[in-house]
Design a protein that fits this description.
The protein is an alpha/beta fold. The protein has helices at residues 25-44, 75-78, 82-93, 114-125, and strands at 8-12, 50-56, 135-138. A three-stranded parallel beta sheet has the order 1-2-3, sandwiched between helices. InterPro entries: NAD(P)-bd_dom_sf, Sc_DH/Rdtase_CS, SDR_fam.
Length: 147
């Protein structure tokens, strides 16, 4: 990329890389590493390569939640919102109960889809060459994450 005079690297991280979260040390550390690696590349390339770190929250369809061994570990990223988060999980999974939670046109929209995340990544890439969005958090307006 440097040889051709331009390029764009897009790395997918997570809000978990922003702050330590009890119960997710390894995941948090790897996402923090992605953040620092991305910023280092941006600085070292001296503007010849655009680097963007995308930090999504609550993307459905990724199956990440199924790998959580200790559900209480999510308290670190949800804090006082933990109980309502659990209630919304049940509503989200129950047909007829998820009104607003699944509608991206509703302020209660709760979890973004992979397709919506992809649209935001394309938005980042489609900026004029002189504009670089170096860091973007993509979240549903009604998500309950603290970070």
């Amino acid at each position: 990329m440097i040889k051709q005079g331009r390029g764009h690297v897009v790395n997918i991280s997570s809000i978990y890389g922003n702050t330590p979260v009890a119960g997710s040390a390894i995941y948090t550390a790897t996402k923090a590493a992605v953040n620092v690696l991305s910023e280092s590349l941006r600085i070292e390339s001296q503007g010849r390569i655009k680097v963007t770190t995308v930090k999504p929250t609550g993307v459905i369809g990724t199956n990440l939640g199924s790998t959580i061994i200790n559900g209480d570990a999510m308290i670190g990223i949800l804090g006082q919102n933990m109980d309502s988060f659990r209630e919304n999980v049940v509503k989200f999974m129950t047909p007829g109960e998820s009104e607003g939670l699944t509608d991206p046109e509703n302020i209660r929209y709760w979890a973004i889809s992979p397709e919506e995340l992809a649209e935001q990544i394309v938005y980042v890439i489609d900026q004029p060459w002189g504009i670089s969005i170096s860091d973007i958090t993509v979240r549903a307006s009604g998500d309950q994450y603290l970070s």
